[in-house]
Predict the 3D structure of the following.
Amino acid sequence: MIPYGRQNITEEDIQAVIDALCSDYLTQGPVVPDFERAVAEYCGAKYAVAVNSGTSGLHLACMAIGLGPGDILWTSPNTFVASANCALYCGADVDFVDIDIDTFNISIEALKKKLEVARKEKRLPKVVIPVHFAGQPCEMEVIKDLSEQYGFYIIEDATHALGSSYKGEMTGACKWSHMTVFSFHPVKMITTGEGGMLLTNDAELNRKIALHRCHGIVRRTEDMTSENRGGWYYEQIALGYNYRMTELQAALGLSQLERLDEFVSRRAGKAGYYNKMFSDLPVFSQIVVDGAISSWHLYVIRIDQTGPVRDRRYFYDELRKSGVGVNVHYIPVHLQPYYQRLGYKAGDYPEAEKYYEEALTLPLYPDLPAACQDLVISHVERIINQ
Ligand SMILES: *Cc1c(COP(=O)(O)O)cnc(C)c1O
């Protein structure tokens, strides 16, 4: 089976992990801060905090802005459940903004309309989490303008989008947001097995993220609430978690980061090839907006409902039978049973639901052999033309 995504691991990566394993520290050593500095520098942000998953990163970002009961978080329904769950972890409410059927990202028009209504009803969100779906940055400049107009925070769910840019700014630079979250799950742009990172330019947000990553414990005298009683002494000043990344993971991440630009360009080349080969077929590719350069974490097509084969499930099953490991990203979050119990229902976000019925994720990763990609394309053609 040709998978839809796969990590790229070299001898250098393996050696980096072995070196970390044989060093004095397996956790809380020098490699995690090195990795943090390297990612911050790559993206052009002031601060970076490594964590044990993208999900932990989203949780810490919500904690850093003080999200809590009575607050509302808005995100896209076309995302992994973690982008919404982080609101619930904090006791806040979650709501969704429908997507744009062409970009697969949050719809700016829908966002503007929903904000107007929310202002009248006095139910404005405390934070909006735009998701850079498949690696395509959302229209951040507009979202930033809206955030100033309506007074909400912006946390970028950039778990797909390390290595992408918008209007010349790397995703993670946080030029149009308060914080950005990356994931290093194996299918994502670079991997640490499990892992994530939070970037910001705000010293106070950075302090809170670092505090809550490690139990809410401080060790520096200036951070303590009472006197320092000796070298052993530490204080817990808030309720945090253990969301730390290990040295082994950071060593792998640091080694992977060196190849990130190469990964992005290889993915872009293959995505461009799919786009070209599908241009005359009854399928739609993701439209990339002006100014955005995607990292192409995923390659998704929508099946044209006026074409000869409309049934996504049939496509999915046929491709799987042919050894093509297709997938579907995403089942709209509000259709999950857990969210249905919170009161969401089918029909709430029609564009995301229509998109979901038509969407199919095809294999795309840096090492996808050209022959395998041609095979995928020929199977898609065969299914359409049979
Ligand atoms: C992968 C992913 C996450 C969570 O990242 P993990 O590192 O797996 O916890 C969050 N949001 C989106 C959109 C993702 O794809």
